[in-house]
Every structure is written in C-alpha cells, then in structure tokens.
C-alpha cells in the first residue's frame, strides 16, 4: 500500500455505479436504491453525470408532502453535482466532502462517470490504515466487505488476499508461467 499521504481515490472507489437517466421517475431511482441496498443513484443526461438522488433528498421531499414517486429524477436530484477525480488524494477527499457537506462523491474523468466514493469507503480505508499490518479479525470483516469489493471490480490475489494490482504474488506467478 502507498503511503497514507499519497493514497488515491482510485484505490478505494467503487467502479460499478448505479445510475438513472434524468427523464426516469423518482420511483425507479428508489427501486434501484432498494434493489442494490445503496443510499444514492447518480443522475445522468446522455450518460453525463448531472446530479444525484440520495436518501436525504427523498426524506426531505417526503416531509414536504410531495408526491415524489411520479416526479422525474431531475425534480428531486441534488445539483450541481459535486465531483472528484480518481487521482485525488484520499486525505484531500475528506476535506472536500466535509467542506461541501456531502457523504458521496462521484468521480469523473474526461466528463465520464468512472467511480464513486462514500463515507463508508473512507471509514474502511481509515480502519485499514490504522490497523495495518495486523488487522484484528473483527475489524477485517468490516474493512474487507466482499460485497463492496465485488462492486469495485478489483480482483483479490488467491495467495495473499491483497488486490491483484497491489500484490507481488500474482505478478511473480504470471512471470514464472511465461
């Protein structure tokens, strides 16, 4: 793992982002949030990220008495969309999210949505950094959440358990096969 100061969001971001088109109804956004057990969906317009619908947006709208299920996503989404980039340093992301008052930060590269980082991702990173190299078993289950890791699309090394792009086992094994 890189030093804490130089660790980047690309190391912890989720790359399979759940999105909804700006013309879809809020009802569909809520169905997706329930189906995937997530707290937000990114709203896109012609595949370009333009907003986000969060649990907080839904709650606030419901308390106003809005009949929100039939509304288009554009009516409920938070905008302008606050974004970061995969090459942002993790420590700077904490600062950015606190300053902006957001709990989720979609990541954009060349105008394209490439990932998302949440408070949970950042908390897992902090725990991992704090306890490395001897991660207690009760913390390991919190930090190494297989469901979350499957969403990131980063395979683990079968020998050491680290991400394959970070471990030497896989590279050594592949080199010996050549």
What's the gist of this structure?
With 178 residues, the chain is α+β, with helices and mostly antiparallel strands. It has helices at 26-35, 55-63, 73-76, 90-100, 119-131, 137-143, 146-152, 168-177, and strands spanning 19-21, 40-45, 48-54, 104-109, 112-118. It has a single domain (4-144), classed as CBS-domain, CATH 3.10.580.10.
Can you characterise this structure?
With 178 residues, the chain is an alpha+beta fold. Helices cover 40% and strands 16% of the residues. The protein has helices spanning 26-35, 55-63, 73-76, 90-100, 119-131, 137-143, 146-152, 168-177; strands at residues 19-21, 40-45, 48-54, 104-109, 112-118. The strands form 2 sheets. A 3-stranded mixed beta sheet has the order 1-2-3. Strands 4-5 form a two-stranded antiparallel sheet. Strand 2 and strand 3 (48-54) form a beta hairpin.
Q: Which features characterize this protein?
A:
two-stranded antiparallel sheet; disordered C terminus; 178 residues; alpha+beta; 40% helix; 8 helices; 3-stranded mixed sheet; 5 strands; CBS-domain
Largest sheet: 3 strands, mixed
Roughly how many Å apart are the termini? Answer: 27 Å
Q: What's the name of the CATH homologous superfamily?
A: CBS-domain
Main CATH class: Alpha Beta
Order of helices and strands: EHEEHHHEEHHHH
CATH topology grouping: CBS-domain
Number of helices: 8
Strand content: 15-25%
Task: Look at the helices and sheets and give the structural class.
Answer: alpha+beta
